[in-house]
Amino acid sequence: MSVKQNALSFNEVAEKYPDFPRLLALKIDMHRRGVAYTDRALGAFDPSVHQGGGTHIFGTRDGILTARPEALILRDGTSVIATPTPFDQNPYVVDLIDDRLIACDQGELIDEVFFWEKPDYYGKRTSSGAIMQNIVSARPQRLYVVPNRYCHFWTEGAGGGGCKFCDIVNNLKTQREEIEMPTRVKIQDLTETIDEALKEKGRFTAIALTSGSDYHGEKPFDKEVDFYIEILQAIGESFSADRFPSQLICTALTKEQIKRIYDNTGVTSLTYNIEVFGESIFNVICSGKAKWVGYKEWKKRLCDAAEVFGPSRVNTGVVSGVELAPPYGVASEEAGIDLILSEAEDLARNGVSTVNMVWQPRPGSLLGASHKQTSGSLEYYVRLAIGLQELRLKYGLSIDFDDYRRCGNHPDSDLARVFQ
User: Domains, the chain, ranges and CATH?
Assistant: First the structure.
């Protein structure tokens, strides 16, 4: 792909950017390259203690759904949501050395890592028999609800096409074949699981909802809106306050639709993931979103949402690295940085933050399967993280609803705890 041929190594990037947290650079590189586990490391994985994979809405780089670590934590508490990757793709290797889990890079010992510990409700079942972690999964400090795991953009013909980096539908097929994963949650299962999770006092700081898009309804996405209201109202019954710490990650809805959600539920923050900046790239990579909403309209709806929720309560995410992917992307990493930061600043002026997710090409996605793509360089992602955090500082925006504690998937919002 279009990356510098002389891309810097992890140690070289750490030396070039001494003010950038070294462990955050390691997190980015582990996201970028993926991880693999030795048999010794997997021997230290205890399913009765540690959180196993399988509940994530997206698949893995090796395409295997099996009992192994969900993710990792670094020494400073940084979450690493890195996908298992075949050894021949040059991932970081997690090994057990002197009774410690160590991330290694081509034999060099880089740093100690830890498995996530699973919450108490994992392994329990609802009154209907549903496995609770398949209804509500967990990140270290956030409950994660996927009410609907099917994205209708993948529906042939009318859908317009799923995002080319996304494997949500293929992963759903695997989950339904191999584990008891529902496509659409039942309200009773959800409320029972939320109530059980909240018994673990102090463990969680927020709840996030994300689903596949559904363009059905009298007006496009009305059906999706109705379902979110039903889900959020049900979750709200577990709280005494009118509003509860929450993030809705959904399709870019009209101002009237999102106001209906805001007025009728306790949701406190909102995310419309545009996925990739640049209208021409967006139209190809996110053809379903382009058909049903459109690039300019997506950005307008983000700004409209900030008027409803207020500044610093709305953001959008980009799967950074996709904008570099040939044959659709820009010609260089420098052009990619210019594109992302200029578009992000356009939104920041209107109270909307941009966060980036490191692209992890997966075999179940169109880009991953067809082009065997690799992600951008480590330096590229370090510069993006710095640039996006600087924009929030420039425009006085907070990202506390999607930071290292609530999500852990965005290197730039991790910086918010270091540079205020």
Answer: 35-115 (no CATH), 132-417 (3.20.20.70)
Q: Could you give the 3-state DSSP secondary structure of residue 317?
A: strand
Phi and psi torsions of 195, nearest 5°? -60, -40
State pTM to two decimals.
0.92
| Sequential pLDDT tens for the chain (420 residues) | 334 456 899 999 999 999 999 999 999 999 999 999 999 999 999 999 998 876 776 767 777 766 778 889 999 999 998 888 888 888 999 999 999 999 999 999 999 999 999 999 999 999 999 999 999 999 888 999 988 888 899 898 888 899 988 877 676 666 666 667 778 899 999 999 999 999 999 999 999 999 899 999 999 999 999 999 999 999 999 999 999 999 999 999 999 999 999 999 999 999 999 999 999 999 999 999 999 999 999 999 999 999 999 989 999 999 999 999 888 889 999 999 999 999 999 999 999 999 999 998 887 778 876 656 778 999 999 999 999 999 999 999 999 999 888 888 999 999 988 876
* Locus of tokens 């990579």: 285
Angstrom distance (rounded) from CA 24 to CA 340? 20
Please say whether the dihedral angle defined by the alpha carbons of residues 321, 322, 327 and 329, taken in this order, is positive or negative.
Answer: negative
